[in-house]
Design a protein that fits this description.
Elements lengths: L2 E6 L6 H14 L3 E7 L13 H9 L5 E5 L1 H4 L3 H14 L4 E6 L4 H13 L1 H13 L4 H12 L13 H16 L4 E6 L18 H11 L11 H13 L5 H13 L3 H4 L9 H11 L3 H8 L6 H13 L3 H4 L7 E8 H10 L6 E3 L8 H18 L9 H4 L3 E3 L1
Parallel strand pairs: 1-2, 1-4, 2-3, 4-5, 6-7, 6-8
Antiparallel strand pairs: 3-6
EC number: 6.3.4.-
Enzyme class: ligase
Catalytic activity: cytidine(34) in elongator tRNA(Met) + acetate + ATP = N(4)-acetylcytidine(34) in elongator tRNA(Met) + AMP + diphosphate
Length: 403
């Protein structure tokens, strides 16, 4: 059995994701689709709208055969590290290829872009460093560096101002540097753009627009035409017992996490630097909503996403000392599988170089231990909106089987 991989968050799963799965299997001509999916906290520095088990079930009901978890270390990191962890895990579980969506839709310009930047790596990195020292955000610095090396191009390249192209580039970069035997492929995004906040197509919408509708209306009906029936049913089931999750729900806990620290203590957390800790303390002391807090600390230097990642790390206690322990993925956490996925794992298991974990208990692996810790904190935050609190369900939940 042959497998292709996809990197996902499914926040939540929608019709565009179903299209991605179908096209990935078709383009890669494989039997199995394996999704490496972010867990409780996501790459944009926010808690997932529903928990990872619900999102994994959405995926398995819609064509994914195996769902594995992207550890917190990578799922909340900037694009390069997010991609590195994702592609490493897909390669370890035996994927021959991976397929990502992009604004471009053609893999050749991604490969040309990688070759261009690799050839002029020293200049590229130097421009990034200088641009950030001059006060640019990281995405702006990347774009500045890219423009500097474009003068040397000899073939088609991609537009690195587009969010999916940025992630796609880093997927290709990770594959070329870490595991060149895995083949990168891309398909064009369809109908909705990554950050679209409104519905402009009959059946395809961005996850951003879907979340906005859920948070604004607290109703499922407005999103019904944009998600598969199985996703709609799972969202309805979730809503019967839980709120849809966003930072606003967690804000009292985040506010406490900030205010009981000194400025020096706040700088211990990953990505917190350059005096932003003082802005955090001032905003947490005066603002009673997450939206108000973010409005107070936002500046040209810091993107919304970068700020949210810092706040995620403060909330979860992810310090620079903890981060320094991690070099590469040390295990594969299985969240769910179909009958075909189960057969694949049976055939592949002896060849997987990492420990395959289906049930967890207390762990000596620091990366897994932090995943469990982050999942518990996600659950505690979600309990603020539950009538019946839950605790430590990560220990008790077995992999989902859709057979």
């Amino acid at each position: 059995m042959r497998a292709t991989g996809i990197v996902v968050e499914y926040n939540p799963f929608h019709n565009g994701h179903a299209y991605h799965i179908a096209q990935a299997k078709k383009q890669a001509n494989t039997d199995i689709c394996i999704a490496v999916m972010s867990g409780s906290f996501l790459q944009r520095g926010e808690p997932a709208v529903v928990d990872k088990w619900t999102r994994a079930k959405m995926a398995l009901n819609a064509g994914v055969d195996i769902v594995i978890e992207l550890p917190y270390v990578y799922s909340t990191a900037q694009a390069r590290d997010f991609a590195s962890g994702s592609i490493s895990l897909l390669a370890a579980i035996g994927c021959e290829s991976f397929v990502f969506g992009s604004e471009n839709g053609d893999i050749a310009p991604f490969l040309h872009t990688y070759d261009l930047i690799s050839t002029h790596r020293d200049e590229y990195e130097a421009v990034i460093k200088k641009s950030m020292t001059d006060g640019m955000s990281y995405p702006q610095a990347l774009q500045q560096a890219y423009q500097a090396v474009l003068a040397y191009r000899t073939g088609d390249t991609i537009d690195l101002a587009q969010p999916n192209n940025i992630l796609g580039y880093h997927y290709v970069e990770a594959a070329q540097q870490l595991t060149p035997t895995i083949q990168p492929m891309t398909i064009p995004r369809t109908a909705a753009n990554y950050h679209d906040e409104s519905f402009s197509h009959a059946s395809i919408a961005s996850a951003t627009a879907i979340r906005k509708a859920l948070f604004d209306t607290k109703e499922l009906m407005p999103i019904q035409s944009f998600v598969p029936e199985t996703t709609y049913a799972l969202l309805n089931e979730w809503q019967q017992q839980n709120p849809f999750v966003q930072w606003e729900l967690f804000y009292p806990l985040l506010q406490y996490s900030i205010l009981h620290k000194t400025p020096q203590q706040l700088t211990q957390y990953v990505d917190v630097s350059e005096g932003i800790e003082y802005a955090f303390l001032k905003a947490a002391a005066s603002e009673q909503t997450f939206a108000g807090f973010m409005t107070k600390v936002k500046s040209k230097r810091y993107t919304w996403t970068r700020l949210q990642r810092m706040l995620t790390h403060i909330y979860t206690g992810y310090t620079k000392d903890i981060q320094a322990q991690f070099d590469k993925p040390s295990y594969i956490r299985l969240l769910g599988m179909t009958a075909a996925g189960q057969r694949y794992l049976g055939l592949q298991k002896k060849h997987i170089p990492l420990t395959l974990i289906s049930r967890v208990a207390a762990s000596n692996d620091p990366m897994l231990s932090f995943d469990l810790h982050a999942a518990n904190l996600y659950e505690i935050g979600t309990n603020l909106g539950r009538t019946t609190p839950r605790f430590q369900t990560d220990y008790a939940t077995p992999p989902i089987r859709v057979l």
